[in-house]
Structure formats: structure tokens, C-alpha cells
Amino acid sequence: MKRSPELLRLADSVLLPGFEGETPPEWLRRRLGEGLAGAVLFSRNISDPGQVTELTAALRAERPDAVIGVDEETGDVSRLEARTGSSRPGNYALGVVDDVALTEEIARGLGADLAALGVNVDFAPSADVNSNPRNPVIGLRSFGADPVLVSRHTAAWVRGLQAAGVAACAKHFPGHGDTGIDSHHGLPTLPASPERLREVELRPFRAAVEADVRMIMTGHLLVAACDPGMPATLSRAVLTGLLRDEMGFGGVVVTDAIEMAAVAGRYGIGGASARAVAAGADLVCVGGEHAGEDVVVAIREAVADAVTEGLLTEERLTDAARRTAELTAWAEAARTTAVPGRSLGLVAARRAVRVTRRRWDVPPGGVAPYVVELAPVMNLAIDRHTPWGVGEPLAKLLPGTSVARFEEDDWTALGPAAAGDALVPAAGRPLVIVVRDAHRVPWLAGALDRLLAARPDAAVVEMGLPGRTDLGAVHIATHGAARVCGQAAAEVLAGLLDGS
After folding, report:
1. Are residues 393 and 453 in the same domain?
2. How many domains does the chain have?
3. Residue range of the domain that includes 393
């Protein structure tokens, strides 16, 4: 069957690509004018607010109703503040505080910031219930392990963000929390029974739908209770049968990055894209790792071919385009002109700190501390250049503080005497050891044990998902590695914040 210009335009209308650079490339401008749905902004596209505002205006000059999305979860996953660290804590910290009014206000402030920049979709919040503490990709991105708590904060986030005229996007449907594989690298399986799926994983998504969330992002995971043979993103049983028909969601369904190995590894980027749209997805997100016109062309061709081969109907594409048009019309009508107010990020981060004291009065008297930061490799959702830690803010509060950071290779290179060598500069000084997800990173847990064996008087700051809290002379859990979380921990160490 011949592919008509209208079919190719419809195929373009389901694509939401990323791109390189801080200004839109020629191919993106041209394709927006030809019907491309919009674009996704990554940290590589962002330098400062003025530049982002000019960028989004340039995109809208080509297509006034373009979808302009960004993956701004706050906390560990930040695109707007990837260079500085987030000024707002992430979901887990907000769940620890468990003040839904605060969560809603944090999201409202973020929405005002995004609206002022010209962004109309935020791929947040994560509505995943992090019931597996060893989950390598969700963790602190979740509000917690209790589905009731996660549900109320998911709804609060949706209300706050959308009050500013920015569409919220609950993810990763139907729930990525009880998995042990990162879908960037492989296909996770959600082992839940149908009963557990509805009581745990789906509960926050139902809350999001009831809060009128405008978008839901699919998760690249196998949900045996719904479709044992096809990842959720590509499953009609999940996207149409469960999400549309059973749960009554009428908004836009967007895929997680379609180039991720969980789906593209088996079907290719084009094949996965066509199958996702056939299953019920309205927008295909691509471009985190593959950000060129060639990828957009390949997906468009695959989607159009799927129609001519009978695997996908033109009516499905028309329906997807209609839903996207309704989304952007809503965003334009709801967009606020309010000036962003004072951020409550540091307030929230301070409230999220938990301190377990035993043998050390904070702050240490008279001598500047030595800080050892043990840095694990982070998952691909977190920009690897985003700064984190306690040493820098502590040095501003306690002049003379010095910092050493070790990654796994650095630590291994020190050999059996690693702890002793690392602690030579700490002689006669208070020691602070900063870790991130020590409970699930073997080398880091081993390094922490050896450091504490040599210096049991040390303070331990856990900036990841908390495990044991009985480590060190004082244990500080920040429940996040955002810039404000590091600041809050530094204030505890300097005696300026008591902690709970």
C-alpha cells in the first residue's frame, strides 16, 4: 500500500524526540513545521533560564502547539539544575516528611518555573511503589514503599504541577518499584499477582487518574499478571485493556525512552515504536541516547510501514494525534502567568533529615572535619555530571573542611590498605563518611565497614535509600542527594540544624 503524505504526517505526530545543543537544529525546526509532535529537553539542552526560554520560543515559532517536555523530577533526577544539583528534594524525602500540602506546594512552585520557561509537560512524578529496596533505577525517585502514602503524594504532586498549567505525567505504568533490573539495560519482570498488582502497584496510578493527571508514561517491564509475553509499553492488554478500559484513563499515554534495551533490544527502535502505538501509546519518546534526525526518520518509516502492513491502523494514529492536541490545548488554557515564588526546597530537605546519635556531639569542637565521599555509579536516569555530596556545603559552614571522593576504581587501586591510606589526612580531625545506597552497592558497603573499623567515631551521612542507621557515632539520613539535601546534612554537622 502506498504511503500518503497524510499518513507520514500522522506518523510524525506521535514522535517526541530529543536533540543535541542549546538551540534547535534545522532538522527539528523543519519537522515541527511538518507535523512532529514536539521535543524533549535534556540537560545537554539547558544552560540557564533565559536560554531555555529562547529555546522553547524557537520551537513554538515552528509549531505553536508543540509538546515541550522535560524530565524534571527534582531531587536526583533534574534536567533544569543538572549543573548545580536540585534546589528541591526528590520524592522519597517528601514521602518521609509526609506532608501532602508541602508536596503540592513544591510541585506548584516547580510548575510555575516550568511554565515561565515555556515547558508544558513534565515527565513526573514517579508513581512507583519502591517495595524492592534493591531496585537499581527507582529508589529515591519513589515517594516510598507504602502504596497508600505513594498514592496521596502522587495525587498532591499532580494537583500542584497542573495548577500552574504544566501537564503532569505519572510513571512508570503499571509500576516499576518491585523490580531488580534497570530497564535501560534489560527487561525487568513485575512478579505481582493480579490482586497485588491492583492493591499495590496500580493504586498510585488510580490516584493520579482521579486527580485528573494529563499524561501517563509506560514502563518497559513484563507484567505477568496482564501479559506474560509482551513488555507493558508494547502490550495492548496493559495500555488499552488495563489503563484505558479498566482504569478509565482518557489522557495521553507516552512511552519511556523507546531506545532502552528492555524494548529496543528485542524489537529495534522502529519496531518497538510501531508496536507501542498499536498497543495504545499516543507519543513515542526518544532521544536520550539517540538524538538525531536519522532516528526520527527511522521511527516514522517504521510506524508508516506498520500501517501499510496492517499491524497498525490509521485510525489509531488519528486518535493519538487528537489526544495530544487536547493536551496542548489544555496546557495553553491553563498556563499561569504567576511569577515563581520562594522555593520551599531547603525547608523540605531540612524536614526530611533523620539523625541517629550515639557517641558524638555535633558539631565537633574547634577542628575542621575531613570528609570522605564514596561515589557509586548512578543509573542512566541521573545525569552523571550532577554534583552531590556534603563536603562542599560543609566547607562553607566550617572553613578548613577538606574533602576526598572515591569511586570504585579509586578505592580498589588503594588495595588492602585502602582505609588506612584514605584516612591519613583525617588524623586528629573529626571524620565524616558520605555514602549513597550503601545497602545495595557491595564495594561501597565494604569500604564503609573498613573505614568505620578504623574510625568508629566517624559520622555517617547516607544520601541514598537508607539501610542501617546504627553505623558510626552519628548517622544522618538525608533521603536524597539533591543540593538542598547536602546543605541540610551540613547544617546538622555544623550544629545549625537538630534533625529529627
Report:
1. yes
2. 2
3. 353-493
The residue among 334, 363, 393 that closes a domain is 334
Find the distance separating the first CA and the last CA of the chain, reported in whole Å: 67
DSSP string, 235-254: -HIIIIIIIIIIT---SEEE
Condensed to tens digits (0 to 9), the pLDDT of residues 132-179 reads: 888 878 989 999 999 999 999 999 999 999 999 999 999 999 998 888
Residue 392 CB: number of other CB atoms within 10 A?
Answer: 18
Are residues 444 and 299 both part of a single domain? no
283 Rama class: left (phi>0) / alpha (psi -120 to 50) / beta: beta
Task: Name the residues annotated as catalytic.
Answer: 184, 256
Cis peptide before 363 (omega within 30 of 0): yes
Residue 345 lies inside a defined structural domain of this protein: no
- Res. 4 pLDDT band, cuts 50 70 90: confident
Residue 230: how many CB atoms within 10 A of its CB?
19
* 123 within some domain: yes
Based on the fold, state whether residues 147 and 64 are members of the same structural domain.
yes
Q: What is the pLDDT of residues 32-41, one digit of tens each?
A: 999 999 999 9
Does some domain include residue 269?
A: yes
In this structure, the answer to whether residues 291 and 423 fall within a common structural domain is no
Looking at the domain assignment, is residue 195 inside a domain?
Answer: yes
Question: Containing H/E element for 165?
Answer: none
Q: Extract the runs of DSSP E, i.e. beta strands, from 104-221.
A: 121-122, 169-173, 189-190, 215-218
pLDDT reported for residue 150? 98
Query: What ranges make up the beta strands (E) of 342-411?
Result: 354-357, 370-374, 402-406
On the CB side of 115, how many CA atoms lie within 13 Å of its CA? 27
Same domain for 397 and 454? yes
Distance of CA 99 to the CA centre of its chain: 21
* Separation of alpha carbons 413 and 76, rounded Å: 28
- Here the cell at position 455 is 574510625
- Bond into 89 cis (ω within 30): no
- DSSP label at 77? B
193 C-beta neighbours (distance < 10 Å), count = 11
Q: With a threshold of 0.85, does the pTM exceed it? A: yes
Given a contact cutoff of 8 angstroms between Cβ atoms, the answer to whether 276 and 247 are in contact is: no
Residue 407 sits in the same domain as residue 438: yes
**341 has pLDDT over 70:** no
State the Cα–Cα distance between residues 293 and 65, nearest whole angstrom. 21
Q: What is the CATH number of the domain that holds 264?
A: 3.20.20.300
